[in-house]
Protein backbone atom coordinates (compact mmCIF):
# COMPACT_ATOMS: atom_id res chain seq x y z
CA UNK A 1 0.00 0.00 0.00
CA UNK A 2 1.38 3.42 -0.83
CA UNK A 3 1.99 5.96 1.96
CA UNK A 4 -0.79 8.32 0.82
CA UNK A 5 -3.39 5.55 1.00
CA UNK A 6 -2.12 4.52 4.43
CA UNK A 7 -2.34 8.14 5.57
CA UNK A 8 -5.98 8.38 4.43
CA UNK A 9 -6.74 5.06 6.11
CA UNK A 10 -5.20 6.41 9.32
CA UNK A 11 -7.27 9.61 9.08
CA UNK A 12 -10.45 7.61 8.44
CA UNK A 13 -9.86 5.24 11.35
CA UNK A 14 -8.63 8.04 13.60
CA UNK A 15 -11.76 10.10 12.98
CA UNK A 16 -13.92 7.05 13.62
CA UNK A 17 -12.00 6.32 16.83
CA UNK A 18 -12.47 9.84 18.16
CA UNK A 19 -16.20 9.72 17.36
CA UNK A 20 -16.46 6.31 19.04
CA UNK A 21 -14.62 7.61 22.12
CA UNK A 22 -17.02 10.55 22.42
CA UNK A 23 -20.08 8.32 21.96
CA UNK A 24 -18.75 5.86 24.55
CA UNK A 25 -18.09 8.55 27.16
CA UNK A 26 -21.55 10.05 26.59
CA UNK A 27 -23.16 6.61 26.92
CA UNK A 28 -21.28 5.84 30.15
CA UNK A 29 -22.15 9.26 31.56
CA UNK A 30 -25.84 8.79 30.73
CA UNK A 31 -25.84 5.22 32.05
CA UNK A 32 -24.47 6.08 35.47
CA UNK A 33 -25.39 9.75 35.96
CA UNK A 34 -28.13 10.54 33.46
CA UNK A 35 -31.90 10.16 33.49
CA UNK A 36 -33.32 6.67 33.88
CA UNK A 37 -35.05 6.75 30.50
CA UNK A 38 -32.96 7.81 27.54
CA UNK A 39 -33.42 7.29 23.79
CA UNK A 40 -29.66 7.05 23.14
CA UNK A 41 -29.21 4.28 25.70
CA UNK A 42 -32.40 2.59 24.48
CA UNK A 43 -30.96 2.49 20.97
CA UNK A 44 -27.70 0.96 22.21
CA UNK A 45 -29.61 -1.54 24.35
CA UNK A 46 -31.88 -2.55 21.47
CA UNK A 47 -29.05 -2.97 18.94
CA UNK A 48 -26.12 -3.94 21.16
CA UNK A 49 -25.46 -7.27 19.46
CA UNK A 50 -25.29 -5.66 16.01
CA UNK A 51 -23.18 -2.75 17.26
CA UNK A 52 -20.84 -5.12 19.09
CA UNK A 53 -20.53 -7.31 16.00
CA UNK A 54 -19.71 -4.33 13.75
CA UNK A 55 -17.09 -2.91 16.14
CA UNK A 56 -15.49 -6.31 16.83
CA UNK A 57 -15.41 -7.19 13.13
CA UNK A 58 -13.98 -3.79 12.19
CA UNK A 59 -11.26 -3.92 14.82
CA UNK A 60 -10.28 -7.45 13.77
CA UNK A 61 -10.30 -6.64 10.05
CA UNK A 62 -8.34 -3.40 10.33
CA UNK A 63 -5.84 -5.08 12.64
CA UNK A 64 -5.25 -7.62 9.89
CA UNK A 65 -5.14 -4.89 7.22
CA UNK A 66 -2.35 -3.11 9.08
CA UNK A 67 -0.32 -6.27 9.63
CA UNK A 68 -0.96 -8.24 6.43
CA UNK A 69 -1.52 -5.55 3.78
CA UNK A 70 0.24 -2.43 5.06
CA UNK A 71 3.07 -4.49 6.55
CA UNK A 72 3.14 -3.19 10.15
CA UNK A 73 4.27 -6.23 12.09
CA UNK A 74 2.51 -6.26 15.49
CA UNK A 75 4.47 -6.40 18.73
CA UNK A 76 3.67 -9.11 21.21
CA UNK A 77 1.32 -6.87 23.23
CA UNK A 78 -0.69 -6.31 20.05
CA UNK A 79 -0.78 -10.07 19.51
CA UNK A 80 -2.07 -10.65 23.03
CA UNK A 81 -4.80 -8.09 22.46
CA UNK A 82 -5.72 -9.82 19.20
CA UNK A 83 -6.24 -13.04 21.17
CA UNK A 84 -8.99 -11.26 23.09
CA UNK A 85 -10.39 -9.33 20.11
CA UNK A 86 -10.69 -11.94 17.36
CA UNK A 87 -13.20 -14.25 19.12
CA UNK A 88 -15.55 -11.35 19.86
CA UNK A 89 -17.04 -10.97 16.41
CA UNK A 90 -17.74 -14.73 16.33
CA UNK A 91 -19.47 -14.54 19.72
CA UNK A 92 -21.51 -11.49 18.72
CA UNK A 93 -22.30 -13.08 15.34
CA UNK A 94 -23.56 -16.32 16.88
CA UNK A 95 -25.56 -14.30 19.42
CA UNK A 96 -27.21 -12.38 16.57
CA UNK A 97 -27.95 -15.63 14.75
CA UNK A 98 -29.63 -17.21 17.79
CA UNK A 99 -31.05 -13.91 19.11
CA UNK A 100 -29.27 -14.51 22.42
CA UNK A 101 -28.79 -11.29 24.37
CA UNK A 102 -27.22 -13.05 27.35
CA UNK A 103 -23.60 -13.08 26.24
CA UNK A 104 -22.29 -10.61 28.80
CA UNK A 105 -20.70 -13.34 30.90
CA UNK A 106 -18.82 -14.59 27.82
CA UNK A 107 -17.60 -11.33 26.35
CA UNK A 108 -16.93 -9.24 29.46
CA UNK A 109 -13.92 -11.32 30.61
CA UNK A 110 -12.37 -11.11 27.12
CA UNK A 111 -13.06 -7.39 26.95
CA UNK A 112 -11.74 -6.72 30.45
CA UNK A 113 -8.41 -8.48 29.93
CA UNK A 114 -7.99 -6.92 26.48
CA UNK A 115 -8.84 -3.48 27.87
CA UNK A 116 -6.30 -3.78 30.70
CA UNK A 117 -3.59 -4.88 28.25
CA UNK A 118 -4.51 -2.00 25.97
CA UNK A 119 -4.32 0.55 28.78
CA UNK A 120 -0.88 -0.82 29.67
CA UNK A 121 0.28 -0.64 26.05
CA UNK A 122 -1.01 2.92 25.67
CA UNK A 123 0.79 3.94 28.85
CA UNK A 124 4.01 2.51 27.44
CA UNK A 125 3.43 4.02 24.01
CA UNK A 126 2.73 7.56 25.17
CA UNK A 127 4.79 7.84 28.37
CA UNK A 128 7.85 5.57 28.09
CA UNK A 129 10.98 7.70 28.25
CA UNK A 130 13.24 5.27 26.45
CA UNK A 131 13.23 1.82 24.91
CA UNK A 132 15.07 0.19 27.83
CA UNK A 133 11.92 0.30 30.02
CA UNK A 134 9.71 -1.44 27.48
CA UNK A 135 8.52 -5.03 27.74
CA UNK A 136 9.16 -5.47 24.02
CA UNK A 137 12.60 -4.84 22.58
CA UNK A 138 12.88 -1.68 20.46
CA UNK A 139 15.47 -3.34 18.22
CA UNK A 140 12.73 -5.44 16.63
CA UNK A 141 8.96 -5.01 16.60
CA UNK A 142 8.19 -2.77 19.53
CA UNK A 143 5.57 -0.60 21.18
CA UNK A 144 8.21 2.11 21.05
CA UNK A 145 7.87 2.41 17.27
CA UNK A 146 5.33 5.05 16.34
CA UNK A 147 4.03 3.56 13.12
CA UNK A 148 0.87 5.69 13.11
CA UNK A 149 0.72 9.20 14.51
CA UNK A 150 -2.33 11.20 13.48
CA UNK A 151 -4.12 14.17 15.02
CA UNK A 152 -1.04 15.47 16.77
CA UNK A 153 0.11 12.01 17.82
CA UNK A 154 -3.14 11.20 19.63
CA UNK A 155 -4.23 8.45 17.26
CA UNK A 156 -1.95 5.43 17.17
CA UNK A 157 -2.39 1.70 16.77
CA UNK A 158 -2.57 1.21 20.57
CA UNK A 159 -5.17 4.01 20.82
CA UNK A 160 -7.28 2.38 18.09
CA UNK A 161 -7.23 -0.89 20.05
CA UNK A 162 -8.10 0.88 23.30
CA UNK A 163 -10.99 2.65 21.60
CA UNK A 164 -12.50 -0.57 20.32
CA UNK A 165 -12.23 -2.23 23.74
CA UNK A 166 -13.75 0.85 25.41
CA UNK A 167 -16.63 0.98 22.93
CA UNK A 168 -17.38 -2.73 23.27
CA UNK A 169 -17.27 -2.58 27.08
CA UNK A 170 -19.59 0.42 26.97
CA UNK A 171 -22.08 -1.37 24.73
CA UNK A 172 -22.06 -4.47 26.92
CA UNK A 173 -22.46 -2.42 30.11
CA UNK A 174 -25.38 -0.50 28.65
CA UNK A 175 -27.05 -3.74 27.54
CA UNK A 176 -26.54 -5.26 30.97
CA UNK A 177 -27.29 -2.34 33.30
CA UNK A 178 -29.69 -0.10 31.41
CA UNK A 179 -33.19 -0.59 32.70
CA UNK A 180 -36.00 1.11 30.88
CA UNK A 181 -38.51 2.49 33.32
CA UNK A 182 -41.94 3.38 32.04
Tally the beta strands: 0
Strand fraction band?
under 5%
Q: What is the H/E string? A: HHHHHH
The stretches of 5 or more residues where confidence is low (pLDDT under 50) are: none
Calculate the mean pLDDT score and round it.
89
N-C termini distance = 53 Å
Shape: globular
Radius of gyration (Å): 17 Å
> What's the main sheet like?
none
Q: State the domain count.
A: 1
Helix content: over 70%
Q: What does this entry look like structurally?
A:
The protein has one domain (3-177). 33% of the residues are buried. α5 runs antiparallel to α6. With 182 residues, the chain is mainly α. The longest helix has 31 residues, at 3-33. The N and C termini lie far apart (53 Å). It is globular and about 50 Å long. It contains six helices and no strands.
Layout of helices and strands:
Layout: H1 3-33, H2 39-46, H3 48-70, H4 76-98, H5 104-127, H6 157-177
Helix pairs in contact: 1-6, 2-6, 3-4, 3-6, 4-5, 5-6
Amino acid sequence: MNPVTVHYLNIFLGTGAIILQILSVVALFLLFLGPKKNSYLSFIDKHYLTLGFIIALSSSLFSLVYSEIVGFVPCYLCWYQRVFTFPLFFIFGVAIWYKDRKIVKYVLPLLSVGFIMSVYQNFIYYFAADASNLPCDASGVSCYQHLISEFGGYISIPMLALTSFLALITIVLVAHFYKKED
